[in-house]
């Protein structure tokens, strides 16, 4: 069994993401920072970054994927070209 590589993100950056996510609404600032870290993790070859960010944020993996779709719709992350 291979071990998944984790994103290179500091505890301060995780705390920043958590603080940006507080409240009833998901803000563009949160989506932008999450997209930045998520895309960096993908570029570094992290397998399944959504799982790692879900653990960091205390949400389900599907929630992180939804946040990334929201970021793409708002132009905060490039759209997938499949």
Structural class: mainly alpha
Q: Per the principal axes of the C-alpha atoms, what is the gross shape?
A: globular
Calculate Rg over CA atoms: 12 Å
What level of helicity do the residues show?
55-70%
> How many strand elements?
0
In terms of quaternary structure, the protein is single chain
List the helices and strands in order: HHHH
DSSP helical segment count? 4
Distance between the termini: 29 Å
Mean pLDDT: 90
As a percent range, the share of strand residues is under 5%
- pLDDT < 50 stretches: none
The largest β sheet comes out as: none
What does this entry look like structurally?
The chain is mostly helical and 82 residues long. The chain is 60% helix and 0% strand. It is built from four helices and no strands. The N and C termini lie far apart (29 Å).
């Amino acid at each position: 069994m291979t071990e998944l590589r984790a994103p290179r993100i500091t505890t301060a950056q995780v705390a920043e993401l958590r603080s940006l996510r507080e409240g009833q609404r998901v803000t563009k600032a949160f989506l932008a920072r999450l997209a930045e870290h998520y895309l960096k993790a993908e570029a570094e070859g992290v397998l399944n970054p959504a799982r790692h960010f879900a653990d960091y944020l205390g949400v389900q993996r599907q929630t992180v994927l939804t946040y990334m779709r929201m970021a793409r719709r708002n132009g905060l992350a490039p759209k997938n070209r499949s």
